[in-house]
Amino acid sequence: SEKKKDADVHLLGSGAILNQSVKASKILENEFDLAVDVWSVPSWKELYYDATETERQNMLNPGDKPKKSYIEECFDGVTAPIVAASDYLKTLPLQVSTWFPSRFTALGTDGYGRSDNRGALRDYFEVDTRHIAYAALGSLYKEKKIDKKTLTKGAERLNINPEKINPVDL
Q1: How far is CA 8 from CA 25, 86, 161, in A?
Q2: CB neighbours (10 Å) of residue 60?
Q3: 127 to each of 53, 71, 167, how far by Cα in Å?
Q4: How many C-beta atoms surround the C-beta of residue 159 within 10 A?
Q5: Residue by residue, what is the 3-state secondary structure of 6-26?
Q6: What CA–CA distance (Å, rounded) separates 134 from 6?
Q7: Distances in Å between the alpha carbon of 17 and those of 63, 88, 160?
Q8: How confident is the model at residue 165 (pLDDT cuts 50, 70, 90)?
Q9: Which of 35, 46, 11, 22 has the alpha carbon at shortest distance from 146?
Q10: Contacts of 84 by beta carbon, 8 Å cutoff, 6+ apart
């Protein structure tokens, strides 16, 4: 995906969660008037390998012009928050977070066996469309790009319960 120069937020999705990221982008665009850039991540592991190999080459060749990893090339100059969502453990997107230039939020299903279907599992682990959209709003609020009123509207519209017990703690 080519980055949108004026994107307010970037959503990264892998596997089946990419569909949730696309749906979240529509909510953010249509209901909150935000410019959203959605990226497909076929392999967090390959991004990690590329970034660490680039880092290694730069370390071994300090006199050469530093190379950029694929992440650094794609997100060069990006200042908008990034929300990365995975059907797997959130450690997968977190392993590459250091190479992104702006606020990075990772969502993932840090467990299994808590639900009878994928939709319920994603809701339980807060990685469905609603939670992706709200994570984007939360990041924008932390960056002072939206106000408290908009964040509160988002929580109400998306049916987010801030008092919900952390799913990993149950």
Answers
A1: 11, 21, 24
A2: 8
A3: 30, 22, 11
A4: 9
A5: CCCEEEEECCCHHHHHHHHHH
A6: 20
A7: 41, 10, 19
A8: confident
A9: 35
A10: 12, 13, 41, 93, 97, 104, 105, 106, 107
Reading the block at residue 38, the tokens are 């959605």
Residue 119 has pLDDT above 50, yes or no: yes
**What's the burial of 84, exposed, middle or buried (CB within 10 Å: 0-12/13-18/19+)?**
buried
Model pTM score:
0.91
| Structure tokens given for 123 | 């809701």
Rounded Cα gap, residues 149 and 137, in angstroms: 11
